[in-house]
Every structure is written in C-alpha cells, then in structure tokens.
Amino acid sequence: MKLAYWMYAGPAHIGTLRIASSFKNVHAIMHAPIGDDYFNVMRSMLERERDYTPVTTSVVDRNVLARGSQEKVVDNILRKDQEETPDLIVLTPTCTSSILQEDLENFVERAQIDAKGDVLLADVNHYRVNELQAADRTLDQIVQFYLEKARKHGTLPEGKTEQPSVNILGMSTLGFHNNHDGTELKKLMGELGIEVNQLIPDGASVHNLKNLPRAWFNLVPYREIGLMSAHYLEREFNMPYVDITPMGIVGTAQCIRKIQQVLNQQGAAVDYGEFIDHQTRFVSQAAWFSRSIDCQNLTGKKAVVFGDNTHAAAMTRILAREMGIRVVLAGTYCKYDADWFREQVGEYCDEILISDDNGAIGDAIARLEPAAIFGTQMERHMGKRLDIPCGVIAAPIHIQNFPVGYRPFVGYEGANQIVDLVYNSFTLGMEDHLLEIFGGHDTKEVIHKGISAESGLNWSKEAKIELNKVPGFVRGKVKRNTEKFARERGMDEITLEVMYAAKESVGA
Amino acid sequence: MTATQPEALTFDCETGNYHTFCPISCVAWLYQKIEDSFFLVIGTKTCGYFLQNAMGVMIFAEPRYAMAELEEGDISAQLNDYNELKRLCDQIKRDRNPSVIVWIGTCTTEIIKMDLEGLAPKLEAEIGIPIVVARANGLDYAFTQGEDTVLAAMAVRCPEKAPEAEKEDRNAMQKLLNFGRKQEEIKAEAAEYADHPPLVLFGSLPDPVVTNLTLELKKQGIKVAGWLPAKRYTELPVLEEGYYVSGLNPFLSRTATTLMRRRKCKLIGAPFPIGPDGTRAWIEKICSVFGIEPQGLAEREAQIWENLADYVELIRGKSVFFMGDNLLEISLARFLIRCGMTCPEIGIPYMDKRYQNAELVLLEKTCQEMGVALPRIIEKPDNYNQLQRIHDLRPDLVITGMAHANPLEARGISTKWSVEFTFAQIHGFTNARDILELVTRPLRRNAALQDLGWDQLVQETAKV
Lengths: 508, 464
Known about the structure:
The complex is a heterodimer of chains A (about 500) and B (about 475).
Chain A: E1 2-4, H1 12-22, E2 26-32, H2 38-46, E3 55-59, H3 62-67, H4 72-84, E4 88-93, H5 95-100, H6 104-114, E5 118-121, H7 131-153, E6 165-171, H8 178-191, E7 195-201, E8 217-219, H9 227-237, E9 241-242, H10 249-265, H11 273-283, H12 286-291, H13 293-296, E10 302-307, H14 309-323, E11 326-332, H15 338-345, E12 352-354, H16 358-368, E13 372-375, H17 377-386, E14 390-392, H18 411-438, E15 458-459, H19 461-469, H20 472-488, E16 493-494, H21 496-506
Parallel strand pairs in A: 2-3, 2-4, 4-5, 6-7, 6-8, 8-9, 10-11, 10-13, 11-12, 13-14, 15-16
Helix pairs in contact in A: 1-7, 4-6, 7-9, 8-18, 14-15, 16-17, 20-21
Chain B: E1 10-13, H1 26-33, E2 37-43, H2 45-54, E3 65-69, H3 72-75, H4 81-96, E4 100-105, H5 107-111, H6 116-127, E5 131-135, H7 145-155, H8 163-178, H9 183-189, E6 199-202, H10 207-218, E7 224-228, E8 244-247, H11 253-261, E9 266-267, H12 275-290, H13 297-315, E10 319-322, H14 329-338, E11 342-348, H15 357-370, E12 376-379, H16 383-393, E13 397-400, H17 402-410, E14 415-417, H18 419-423, H19 432-449
Parallel strand pairs in B: 1-12, 2-3, 2-4, 4-5, 6-7, 6-8, 8-9, 10-11, 10-13, 11-12, 13-14
Helix pairs in contact in B: 7-11, 12-13, 12-14, 13-19, 14-15
C-alpha cells in the first residue's frame, strides 16, 4: 500500500478510453462498477465536448460478484452495436475486472459472432501500466487489428502515395494542447510539401487505418503515445518513423532535418535547409527573442521543470539552449521511461528528478527556490504556496489548459507560444519582487478623499506610509482589521501605535 | 405531455446504466464537516483519479484525506493488510494527529474481501485513535449514499450516556447561535423550550444551515439535543434508547435504520426540509410527534413564497426532467411542482419507499393540489433510454450530471448540473431562494441570449 494524495498519470483504462473516444464512431464499454465512468465528465467538461462521450459501462454490481457477468457484457456489447452502429467496440477492463479475472476475451468472441461492428478487448492491465502506457498500447492494438484484418481480406492498398506523405501518430482527446498541435503540424507538413496521409487517433475513422502503409513515413510528436504503433509499422511495413518532438526552434529544425533525411532515402530529393533558416530567422519570433534584451535579462535565472517526458524534456532544452536559463532541476513522472529522459536532458540541467510523488517535487522546489517553475497544475499550486510563478507545460491539467484560442506547443507558432509563456512567468516574478523592494505601487500620498477615506477613520501620515509597505495582496485585510480594531475601541485616528497594537491583537 | 392523471405514483426500474459520482466522493464534504477527522480511502488508482478530478481545487488545500493505494502485492495477498494499514495509519497519526480515522472501503476491498471491520478494532487499540469503517463502494451505492454509510458507522460510535459532554455540546451550540448578537436580543428571544423527549437530527449540513434549522425549531420550543455528525468527532451526540431522531436528507436510510435498530431511537418520518413547503411539513411533523401546536408556520411559509415570486414566475408552467444521480430528486421535484412546474420523470438511483414515505405522500398531494400529472419515478435509470425520452419530450429543463450537460446544451436543451444541489445550501426556509437560483440560472441565461439564433450547435440533431 502507498499513501497517496495526488497522482500525475491516471489509471490504465483512462488511456484506453482516450484512444477509443478519439476515433470517430468507436464506442468503449467499461467493465466497471457504478461511478467509474468519470472519464465522460472529464471529457465533457475539459474538452467542452458537444457530443455524448461514446463510453458506457457494463455495470459490475453485487450480482456480478456473486454469479459473474454471464450474459451481461455480451448483451451490453450487442445492445450498443444496435443502438449506435459503431465501427468498433472496445471492451475496456478496469481495476475491478483485473481482480475479478473474468474471461473477457471470451465475451468479446461471443459478442463478435452477432455484432455488426468489430469488437476488441483492450489489452491493458491496471496494475502493470498507467494511463499513458495503456493509451500507447491501445492505439497500437487498434492499428494492428485493422491492418491485419485488411491483409486477411486482401484489401491492403499497394504502394505509396505519389507525393511524399506522412502519418501523424498519437494525437488524442484530453492530451495537452493536442488539437492545436495537430493543426500546427498539418500546417507545417503543408509548408514542407508533405501530404498528411492520416492523423490518428483524433477524429480518424478505423476504416481508413488500412491506408496507413501508403504514407512514406510516420511522425510521432509525443514520446508517450504512438511509438508502439510506429514500431509495428516499421516492423511489418518497413516504414521509417521520426520521433523527434518538434518543440522549440532547435527541436523543430532537428525534426525537419530528420524528415528530410527520411524522404531523401526514399528518393524524394528535398532540401529544407532554406525553409528552416527562413522560418527561424524571419518568421518565428523565438530566435529573435533569444537575442533580444528581454531574454538577456533572463540569463542565468533559475528554473525548475517537471512534467511528462515529452514536455519536460523539450522545455528543459528550450530554456537552457535557446534562452540561457539555468535549469536547476528537470524531472518527469514517467518513471517507466526514465532512461530516455535522463539521456535527453542530462547535459541541460543541474539535477534530474524521476518521481511521481508530488511531495518530493514540492520539497525540491522549496529547497532550490527557482525564479520560475514549468510544470503541471500541481506545480502551479506549489508555486502559489511558495510565491513562485509557474507556467503549465504538461498534464494533469485543468479546464483553463484547454484554451479555445490557438495555442500549439509544437512547430514555429508553438515556439512563439512558449516564448510568451516563459517570458510572462519570469516578468511576473520580477514585478512582484520589485514591488516588494519599493513598497508597492501606492507610494504617493493620497491627496483627495476617495474610496480609501470612506471608513471615516483618519490615518496618520506615518500609518499610511506604513500601510503602503504591506504587500499588496494582504494590504486590504490589514487595513480592515486595523480599522475594526480602532472602531471597537472608539479611536478615531489610526497612528503607528494603533497599527502595531492591532497587529498584535489580531495578527493583522 | 398527456393530460391523464394516474391515481397513484408509478414506480419503474430500468437497467441501472446511469452516470453518477462514486460514493467515495462523500469524503469531499465530510472531511470538511468533521474538522478533526482524517479519511483514508482504501482503493486503487481509479478511486484516486476520481477524487482528484471530482474535488477540483480542494485537492490542493492539504485535505485531510488520502488514498491507501493498493498495489499488486496487496491484491495477491503477498503483503499483509494489517501491517500495511498500520504503517499508513501510524504515518497519518504522526503527520496530522486526527481524533478519528475513517476508512472508506471500496470496490476492490470488497472483491478481495479485505476484512476492514475486523482489522479496525485491533488497530484502533494499538494506535489509540478510533477507526470508523464505512463501505462506500460503487458496487452497492451511488454518490450521496456514501455519506449514509459513514453516518451509519458513526451512529454506532455515539456515546450512550455522557451528561457532561452533552452539556458542553449544548453550550457550544448556544454560543454558535448567539454569535454576533447583543445580550438583550438573546434574552428577548430566549423562548421557553417545550417539555419534549430529546431530539437528535442526522445528516451532514454546512454549519450555517445547522444554525438556521436549529433556530427554526427553537421558535417552536423544540430543543435540538445534538447532530449526527457534529463539527468534531469528539462532539458526537449522545444517543439513549427512546431518543427521537429525524433525517435531514433523503439518502440517509441506512443511518435511519441503524439509529432505530441498534440505538433504539424513534424515527420521525417526515418530508425533508427542502423548499418552504418541505421545511414547513418537516417542522409540523416534529411538532405533531411532540404534541406541540406549531406557531406562525403558515405565515412564515407564505412570506418565503412571496420572496420567491420573481423566480417562481420564471419557471411556472415549464417542465423539468430529473435524470437521477443524487437521491435528492423526489424532494426537489416536489418543491418545483409546488412552484408550478410539471415533471414527467424523476430518475433516482435508489428509492427507499419506507424512509421517504412522508416525502412521497407530500409529492402526490402536491401534484393533486397543483393539478399536474404525477411523475414517473424511475429507479436505477438507463441514461441511454432517458436521452431518447428527453429528445422526444424536449423538457424545458433537464437536471443531470456533467457527462450529459454539455451535449444536451449543444442540442438546444437547457440543463442544470445536479451535483450543485448537493453542495449548495438548500435546506430550510432561508435557502429556498438558493434552490431556485440554481434552477432558474439556465433559464435566465437563455433569456439573456435569446434571439441570437444559435441554440442548436450540433449538425445532426437528436442523434444519441
């Protein structure tokens, strides 16, 4: 047993549901007790989704405990097959079904006999994998299923597309800024003259999966989801893949160069050198920003980075390499893939932390006292407590991290967005600091009776100055408490003495 | 809607395929209510993920709750449950020093048959902190029923006889009631209490509501001897044989049963004090049991209705559909029908016809008096079927969980998120306006946005 207050990655079934519900017309049926369908709430709230989340539950209750699911799961699959005619139904095990050890495979086989759509059992074990690993596996499983099916039916299309083309793997629902990243990558591919053969799973149809091998290569922008599918496609169809995250100016350039290499090997003869140079120097603002005086002022400032592998590694490199910021600690909660992370950030930070215990991260931040944090929502709250600004760069995230406006993290526009995020975090911290040194904005004496005078109490000049020394965010409270204290004692002028007395009595 | 009026309420039961919160969510409000408690949820990542997301920002406020996250070794019994729990509870004692640790049993502890009730007394003796066990799992219960399992377990822990503690408790209550008032006012208001047997109320409510309802009864000369739960575990009320008890919420049937059977208390079965009609009926029933003639209740109710007039105007003649997820549905429907709404369907996770009897009778009576059709009450509803019915009926308002709210809104159907009724203050005369504030919000929003012409925001309509 482990005492836990917070977790960075969710349980396995969440990963499966993220993949299933990203596809068009795929329905997931969870084998779970009442209340485990919380995924629907998250998708509906966070993604502000207009459609019903295609996830239902085959409820595990007392009867199931006593007698097993029997016909229940099969009936539920067939019912959904009829009601919504999905292309695919994914039976999703949960922690509960992991222990019940029912033969879900058998239910799937039986349901498949009568179902018009396809039926699959998600191959994930609650106690062995987390949300991200499960998502990676489920995507791989669905891709394999449809390619093998096509092969069996002899419907696998022959050959490659005429023009160079790409599959983008791993964009999914509830992923951090995934929908904006998808748009940005499509745009980037367009500019490189590369046709997007398919983007999966977000918005894709399983019927089109058989066309995946027609692309010249696969692009896997995120470390966590999509690699398994890319490996499979490489193994079975000899398709090369690019797994360099195009995040930051340098990262994007590296990714494009790798794409160039992959295409040239297949005889495309492309040269993206000029495109990269033009984008970097004249279109994107990020390279210019790193030369500007603003960024000069950030030189050597301390930052802590924490998140999933993709975002934490990319941010660490951007901060260190592109902005001259000193990353005192870089960390990830993807413990299962820690070696990769170490290798990626080793030369760009002082210290590496691999942990999924928010207490350990909080302690490290408190010890290092960075000028800014780049982390998840959890680190944002730690920052609040410690008065350190934080930019959110990775899940777990709240609704404000699902912006309606265009906010990619990848590509050249992504680099611009990251500049804003970084710069805003640091200047806010600076501004706060300056205010504290100089005693706040309101250092000028108030010469007319405005709102501040309506209490009917006179503040002596000294007391007023003293009050203005109080940090802005508690000043109002101190003022109110002091006035209350004075009023209760029938005083009509607030002097320094009164202020101190009030402070002592109420801790104002 | 058809104009037929059935003679009595009809009850149906569907497949139980509906969305609701897991009952472990009761931790969220109970740890705040019982200030010296610590809630330990013994379950898996799934439970933790739910709590973390459902509680939103509360999670960052160093809550007095945690997960005892079961690992593979716990499931396969390679690790010893007792030793594991002892290690965690020692740590909780060291870090937080609570007056009680509440173990919340989950689906997993049920399936692997972890004997929490058996382990608790041993561990309790060893670490010197009371351990209360509540099996609030999704196999058996829905959402608010979690509180019921916790309170039923606490009812057994209430002292049997502790005159001193009782006195203090009352003083504390008195202090609370008199807070911020002048001495003369208190004297002027200090009515003589009628001579009646001790009355203990059960149900977790925010402190302002506790004060409010206690005062409401005081006006009738009825003294509240205690509340289950109290603000602190150490202040649990005395429960002697023959005490009277009354429930504040419709989902507390196990607690009621425990109080009657194990503590030999007498249950006052009344409608619940939700809405001015419910509050009045609740007080009248308590008065009648104690042989007290209620004073000024009709005027009080009338005055509240007068204050609600502007909101009632907005919903009169409109229809409301309850998908059902928190067991407050019967009481809320009864109040809204009294406000002039019609209600084709009341979905509800679980219907205890005995515990809710008085509320059901009042619902029936309200429908007859308002001249509206009796609603269908659907226990263990099927959300898919309900959505078909909603698309057919097109009610003016659907009260539902967050899983369906946005998709319904996108199809031009107004919704109110049901969970808000659990967390808002809705009890007593004073809070009736808060209920209507919630109910009318979508309607007022619609009024503000009308004529913009974009209430249908999906291309295919009515496909579920």
